[in-house]
Specification:
Blueprint: E1 4-8, H1 16-32, E2 38-42, H2 45-57, E3 63-67, H3 84-89, E4 94-97, H4 100-105, H5 110-122, E5 126-131, H6 135-139, H7 142-156, E6 168-172, H8 186-204, E7 209-213, H9 221-225, E8 232-235, H10 242-250
Parallel strand pairs: 1-2, 1-8, 2-3, 3-4, 4-5, 5-6, 6-7, 7-8
Helix pairs in contact: 1-2, 1-10, 7-8
Bound molecules: 2-phosphoglycolic acid.
2-phosphoglycolic acid (PGA) binds near residues 8, 179 and 236.
């Protein structure tokens, strides 16, 4: 299976015009990149429709589409929420769930994350579940970080088993490495990825793909994705600069 590079645009860019331009530049990079990685972009909800349209019309299906979040109900009186069926109807394949920024700023709990993952995979989306320890936990050492991440996985994936579980990918994103320019040592990230796979094999009967995220750029991306336990990368800041993101794809 090819490695996956996930471009998480977060609350960027500021206009639809810029979003379309970034999508087009990303698609060119994806086409030129070596045989290597699969690419998915995660724009804000409001841009998904236009990007989906451009993707289809301009034959840029090589780039998969993802959403940055998804709600746990299909439809109903839940102001501002977006359900998995709505996303699928636009051709969206992936949804990020449980990103640390949502846990922090929107107070998303593991119980909420669990409901979202369950509904999204039942409705046919592929979920990228984000987990990762904060700086205080990491200061206690790698073993403490592992325990923390396993705790998140236990809660976030409670009750998830069987064939639908294959639609779960885990992104290990240590919170202290996100947007800080401080990245995890590749060998530590790989050890965590292997631990996540082993843990879920034992507890849930499946071994997911695991991405690394946290200050990935064109200089360090290869250090991660060349490791066997790491199945790709989630890229935030560096995915917003078309030239830099193209360089990342070239390295895959
Ligand atoms: P970053 O973000 O690449 O800007 O550190 C990664 C993420 O939050 O997914």
């Amino acid at each position: 299976m090819p490695k996956l590079i996930a471009a998480n645009w977060k609350e960027n860019p500021r206009t639809e015009k810029e979003a379309l331009a970034l999508f087009r530049a990303t698609a060119v990079g994806a086409r030129r990149g070596a045989a290597g990685a699969a690419v998915a972009v995660f724009p804000p909800f409001v841009y998904l429709e236009r990007i989906a349209e451009a993707r289809r019309r301009e034959k840029k299906e090589r780039v998969a589409l993802g959403a940055q979040d998804v709600f746990w109900e299909e439809k109903g009186p839940y102001t501002s929420e977006v359900g998995p069926g709505m996303l699928r109807s636009l051709g969206v394949r992936y949804a990020i769930v449980g990103h640390s920024e949502r846990r922090r700023w929107m107070h998303e709990t593991d119980a909420m994350v669990n409901r979202k993952v369950k509904r999204a995979i039942a409705d046919g989306l592929h979920v990228i579940l984000c987990v990762g320890e904060g700086p205080a936990v990491r200061r206690k050492g790698i073993a403490a970080a592992k325990r923390f991440v396993e705790g998140q996985l236990r809660k976030d994936l409670a009750g998830i088993r069987g064939p639908a579980a294959r639609r779960v990918t885990v992104a290990y994103e240590p919170v202290w490495a996100i947007g800080t320019g401080k990245y995890d040592r590749p060998e530590d990230a790989a050890a965590m990825a292997a631990a996540i796979k082993n843990f879920l094999k034992k507890t849930h009967g499946f071994s997911p793909r695991v991405l690394y995220g946290g200050s990935v750029d064109s200089r360090n991306v290869r250090d991660y994705i060349q490791l066997r336990a790491i199945d790709g990368a989630m890229v935030g800041g560096a995915s917003l600069k078309a030239a830099e993101f193209k360089k990342i794809l070239k390295k895959t």
